[in-house]
Hints:
Layout: H1 4-14, E1 36-47, E2 50-62, E3 65-74, E4 85-94, E5 99-109, E6 115-121, E7 129-133, H2 145-148, H3 154-162, E8 175-180, E9 185-199, E10 206-220, H4 224-229, E11 235-243, E12 250-261, E13 264-275, E14 278-279
Amino acid sequence: MISRSLAFGLAVCALPFAQAAQAAGGAGAEQSQQPSSGLQMAMTIYAGGITIGKVDMDAKIVGDEYHVVSNLETSGVVNAFWQSQIQASSNGKIGSHELQPTLYDSFYTGHTENHQEVSLSYENGTPIRLYANPPYSTTGFEVKPEDKKSTFDPLSAVVFIASGVGAKADNPCSVLAPVYDGRRRYNIELSKVKDTSIDMDNGVYKGPALLCEIKYKQLAGFSPRVLRDSNFPTITAWVATFPSSVPGRSYAVPLRVWAKSQYGIIAAVVTSFKIDGAPVKTTGG
């Protein structure tokens, strides 16, 4: 059986760069006059060459506000033991070097009609407010209040990394995103391995990119057994950057994200992406 932890971690690590849903973002007439940019992306997840799921995301930045929506859904043989669908959205404030979430909502549907709704509210430095329906117990493996400070929800981590807010100007693969999703606390850490040039088999992109490593580090909120026994592999990614129509704004896009496992290569591969609503040329930099 494919490790749920590895599949989950790979999907989580793919999202921070990456559409099915439309981003409203609360944008009204007043906001429409402000600079606007966005990243839309869809990826397919494979295990040993077999499709096991899809993930898509639509992130939009209007002025100093961001809104992002995403959908993750398993498919194929994996549904026999881990059928899952996660729909999520997040919004908040974004600056040139900082990001502050405001509200995160996620809806999970699992095997045998198991459902879970989770909401995280952030209010001016006060402790993060968690709403879960149905409520769940974290007794025995809680996340301490001090460990929740200065963290992002999963989709805000997407914007933090993909928008370049959290990275060095000359290296989009130099960033660490501390994440708290309402139950688990983990870090997503990126580092550059080298410059490279790629030619994707599906024709989505050909051109310069970075070869990067992604470390998914489980810190708290996981069962003691998971923390003790988990030997999470290093994840590798091809990442390319693309400018938007807003001066100074560019996006880091993961074109292929993969990790080795005892079941073969588990990979998330981009199938389509757009910057500011326009398809990106298959050859470029």
